[in-house]
Design a protein that fits this description.
alpha/beta; three-stranded parallel beta sheet; 7 strands; hydrolase; Isochorismatase-like_hydrls; Isochorismatase-like_sf; Cysteine hydrolase family protein; Isochorismatase-like_dom
Length: 168
């Protein structure tokens, strides 16, 4: 997500961490699932008819990797993802991506609620500055931290890229 409309973000190394995990998953022959948001709203930065919605070249799905296209933040909502995971015998998910407070959090919550063992990689995610309901501005770092705090221990386990790679 590189749309300027989204504003200032945190974690400038997130893409490096995602690429490190993606490379490791590919080298070890693990299943990789790419999720692409294609919004139903023309006002959205995810509207299919605009630049920036396509995958960046470095994140292009490889042959045999799954591509899930979603219309809302939650990758499980109306995509068939749960059925495909269960049919494949996959019960553990490592979740990375953008935005921590939106798609990552909603997908991780659903994964946890459905009984999947969900792991969110904190340094392989990022988000943006955001105002709360009352109009108080919060930095992307604060939004990221709160979102991870919402998830950890209840819906998912929050870890670093290094921890995931060391566990292998």
């Amino acid at each position: 997500m590189l749309h300027p409309k989204l504003g200032r973000r945190n974690n400038p190394r997130a893409e490096e961490c995602i690429l490190e995990l993606l490379g490791h998953w590919r080298r070890t022959g693990r299943p990789v699932i790419h999720v692409q948001h294609l919004s139903r709203s023309e006002d959205s930065v995810f509207w299919p008819q605009q630049s920036g919605v396509e995958f960046q070249e470095r994140f292009q799905p490889s042959m045999g990797e799954w591509l899930i296209q979603k219309q809302v933040p939650d990758a499980f909502c109306s995509t068939g993802l749960e059925v495909r995971l269960r049919e494949a015998g996959i019960d553990q998910l490592i979740i990375v991506g953008v935005a921590t407070h939106n798609s990552v959090e909603s997908t991780a919550r659903t994964a946890g609620n459905l009984g999947f063992e969900a792991w969110v990689v904190e340094d392989a995610c990022f988000t943006f500055d955001k105002a709360d309901f009352f109009g108080n501005a919060h930095s992307a770092e604060e939004v990221h931290a709160m979102s991870l705090g919402n998830l950890h221990g209840e819906y998912a386990t929050v870890v670093s890229t290094a921890r995931i790679l060391q566990a292998d």
